[in-house]
Amino acid sequence: MQTSLGLLGHRRFLPLFVTQLLGAFNDNLYKTVMVLFVTFHVYNDVGREVQFNAVATGLFILPFFLLSALSGQLADTRDKARIIRLVKTAEIFIMLVGAAGLLLANVPVMLAATLAMGIHSTFFGPIKYAILPQHLEPGEVLGGTGLVEAGTYLAILAGTIVAGLVSGDARLAAAMVLGVAALGWLTARQVPPAPPLGDLPPLDFHVVRSSIRLVSATMHVRRLFLAILSISFFWAIGAVLIIQFPPLVKNVLTADERVASLFLGIFSVGVAIGSVIVNRLLKGEVSARWSPVSVLAMGGFILMLSFVARGWEGTTDGSLYGWRDFMGHPGALLITISLLGVSIAGGMFVVPLYAFLTTTVEKDQTARTVAANNIVNSGAMVVGSLLAFGISLAGVGAADQLLLTAAMCLVSAWLATRLNAAVAACPLPLGQATKP
Questions:
Q1: Which regions span the lipid bilayer (predicted)?
Q2: Taking the domains of the chain in order of start, what are their residue ranges?
Q3: Comparing 19 with 235, which gets the higher pLDDT?
Q4: Half-sphere exposure of residue 421, counting CA atoms within 13 Å on the CB side?
């Protein structure tokens, strides 16, 4: 079987991989610059900082909840490569708005661009997974999915690090997001055609009806139901963690925006490492057998992070640690190990589940399956954002909020265990789990 890295030498995979990588980099560069600017230079209150991050996260996620059904229909009934090119063209115009928001230091304009980027990602999301079974051999899908996930999180890492470096220079940040959007448009033009397969039903533009119909048509399959719920709890955990990170760094660890960027970067690279590790362990097999233990380990590392944060001795003069001083702190090593452990375990948990989604149904249904997953995921992430918003209003500290995310890992582990039991009870070849 061809190794995963060998896929990078083929046009059937490389342009999609690079396009996704550039999109993830740009998306995260813009969002992180915006969050760091507002957290460290606009507000000076932990509650308002958490609430702003929750609002920004919610605005980005909302389109996934509202428009995923339409995006899934489009991806399964139109040429996926053509949709990719249209979406990447739209990104250029969205980044023009985002650049204007950065240059004007206008928070509403920046949030408008964040909402638009959510729409952009909603229509690109189903395609990046659904196109893989169409361009790759069955034995290559897990490896391709792992590469996409690893590349995505490495791009997020790069975007996060760069954001920490340029967050104080609006002109440079604006120029970068526009330039990367243009590069993504160029690479998207090299993605090979991926015409629709099977029948072409008419599009349903009624977002509520089509969303309910799509989720109902997917969730009645027990193994898909359990896989989607497992992924959803994972992303709800991720949403709460990402919301907590900048205020935790500033107000508990008393460190600056570059340390916050480092936190987000460690989280991203860890997921990439986890993606590679689980692919090696499974040897190309599409299976969720490592998912329960992985998410339990994730919960353990979150508890460790909370414990270290509670005992952290920050500055007492109102100053913030730079990254050099932060890394010299006695607790920095444990913080780093905790974050890396959380993210590696998270990558090992979620990547096989995404591969499971795209290989359990027929190829002409993969985009709609991913779209149904996105609807449920986004609903879970919105709930997570609202939960973070609400408990911050109640005065719960950032370190204490980590206990909630650790408890959520138990639910994800239980769901993944049920998924493995369902697959063991009724094993089916790939692409044949389309009936209840």
A1: 12-30, 50-71, 83-103, 141-166, 224-247, 259-278, 290-312, 332-357, 378-396
A2: 9-196+207-425
A3: 19
A4: 8
